[in-house]
Amino acid sequence: AKSSDDQQICLYDKGMDDTIRKRRQLVDELRLAIQGDQLELHYQVQMNVPNETVAGYEALVRWNHPTKGMLPPNVFIPLAEQTGLIVMLGEWVLRTACHEAASWSSGLPVSVNLSPAQLTTPNFVEQVQDILLESGLAPQRLELEVTETTFIADQKKAISVLERLKALGISISVDDFGTGYSSLAMLRAFPFDKIKLDKSLIDDIDNNYKSKGVFRAVLSLGDALSVPILAEGVENKEQLAFLLEHGCQLVQGYYYGKPEPFSAPGKVTFVEPDK
Ligand code: C2E
Ligand code: CA
Ligand code: CA
Ligand code: CA
């Protein structure tokens, strides 16, 4: 029995080594990817449904890995956050999104996701200001998306940074509202311009009366706070009909379009879906 135990421990250790080694390699590759030319932004349309107009686009980062192909952010964003690489990655995303959006002929706003560590980076506001200046993007066209995690570490600092960003003309959205990452206390404490309802809230709205109830309640909350609400992850007509019936006008989801690269600078590739 003893020898087989030893063997198991041995195998286990080797597995650990492998995991750590692979992780370390991925971190090294990610650093090169950020500095090199391997990251790209895809954009997902946000619709104002009653007007049938495009309200803006959310920038979502992808890693075009030399051997593994196009990697989605859930594969590398957590790693970037754990290793501090997120500060460099986030700056790349912000700069690229501002430069690309500045070239859109539509003049529509762009939404950029912020990780908690970015907001508390020294001189973050100055960095944003510099990027706006160099890209020529009007601050009114930039929206920054934050989650509650952003405020846990240093609430005072986070509030002051947000207020300075807002003073520049940038708007702030609460992302993933309705998950553990955004709460009512947060809504009370911070001046937001938009609430984005997480996909999980809409997922089973078709066949679950409780989900419908929660959704209606959140919409009236937005109403009470005079903050527009955007529903994320809308995939079908039934969900859309429910949202419209309850006065939710802003929608983002596969129903209207998946995130995709802009084929050429300034060229909006968004196509109206079949009604
Ligand atoms: P998120 O900010 O909540 O972005 C929405 C995610 O939902 C995107 O996944 C989008 O492709 C997906 N989605 C949108 N509509 C639908 C739908 O109708 N059905 C389904 N099944 N999915 C839909 P993506 O691009 O894989 O991004 C995942 C997460 O990674 C984002 O969630 C965000 O938290 C993070 N992320 C992406 N880009 C960045 C970035 O530049 N910086 C930071 N810090 N985080 C990012
Ligand atoms: Ca987002
Ligand atoms: Ca979200
Ligand atoms: Ca999410």
Automatic annotation (TrEMBL):
EAL domain residues: 23-273
Keyword line: Membrane, Transmembrane, Transmembrane helix
Name of the molecule in the record: PAS domain S-box-containing protein/diguanylate cyclase (GGDEF)-like protein
Entry's Gene Ontology cellular component terms: membrane
